[in-house]
Amino acid sequence: xxxxxxxxxxxxxxxxxxxxxxxxxxxxxxxxxxxxxxxxxxxxxxxxxxxxxxxxxxxxxxxxxxxxxxxxxxxxxxxxxxxxxxxxxxxxxxxxxxxxxxxxxxxxxxxxxxxxxxxxxxxxxxxxxxxxxxxxxxxxxxxxxxxxxxxxxxxxxxxxxxxxxxxxxxxxxxxxxxxxxxxxxxxxxxxxxxxxxxxxxxxxxxxxxxxxxxxxxxxxxxxxxxxxxxxxxxxxxxxxxxxxxxxxxxxxxxxxxxxxxxxxxxxxxxxxxxxxxxxxxxxxxxxxxxxxxxxxxxxxxxxxxxxxxxxxxxxxxxxxxxxxxxxxxxxxxxxxxxxxxxxxxxxxxxxxxxxxxxxxxxxxxxxxxxxxxxxxxxxxxxxxxxxxxxxxxxxxxxxxxxxxxxxxxxxxxxxxxxxxxxxxxxxxxxxxxxxxxxxxxxxxxxxxxxxxxxxxxxxxxxxxxxxxxx
Length: 470
Prior knowledge:
By secondary structure, this protein is α/β, with parallel strands linked by helices. 35% of the residues lie in helices and 20% in strands.
């Protein structure tokens, strides 16, 4: 059923209701490999889907104005604020994006096939050329000439089979929550709140709290976005409460782990008004982010807004299936301070069944795994950051990316240490890294190691179940 609404700034009116034929909510589609066709290009597949369309090369942001629905986006590298165009794309091909980049994460969540690490696609392909992007043949994706049909099957699942590990889903977009929750996932193991801030709020939270520091043009833009709301902070609270509530209600009573915003300073600076509040750091990945940002007096009022939105969802709406996950927590002492901050904002651990988790994504989380496991209700392994920081490889490095191996023995030992600490303290351990979504063999290996939860991209359910059932 589709609803159409209008708002006059004070009241909301329901103006139209359209009935649609009922769909099976527990049915997924998946593609099979097709006959051998010589690819034009190959790269790293993101997801397990297939898409065809005409090529549209995006060399700069202004080219997005000409991007049409159903076209294949081709670029050297995408940017987070290209999200509206992602929604129109039938497929994405890039050269320098990585598996954990904004476009890769959103493409998987939207079910759009994407190929990254493709050699010079903007030179090899031409505007208007029809191609098929195939990501259904394992970890290597292919760009095929013309429109190549792939056999399509449906996969129906009303009850999750017992495979020895809980399967949860990674999400970022509130508008995808209802459809995704129709499948019998055990819950949402990772909800990235920074994507809600970027996509739903669009404004730096400190700009809403300190608008006097903004330029006249930025202040005018802020006024337009917040029109009809009681105050600037209330705009943030309303939008975030709505987004979080969508996730929580869609999955109720299954747990939903909301990870507090993990933007880095350069990413926060891209939000409206952000450049007035963010430092220019040479190494944002290792800088002002995560727990240290939340505890800093300059940013604490902003994270208190985020926490108030969570409190409203839990206390006012009664959606107590919402959990909190702390990102990039360097030390146990920092974790203790965070728990005190949460309590001061009406979110006390264990009160009203509140669970507080922590990301395990730093070498210090491994070395002090027992201390973190004793402090928090769960640990969620973020393998991308953990691999980068353990092996000393920048995720955007083009020269030493061969060293970035989330399944290297060093990393497997790190995961084992975290899992053992979790079992010793009866603390749940989840693995939400992208490698488990991309490679079913990796998912099976992690399940055998004893991880309690595998949190996967939405499109990874079928191939993962196929492997775990063996």
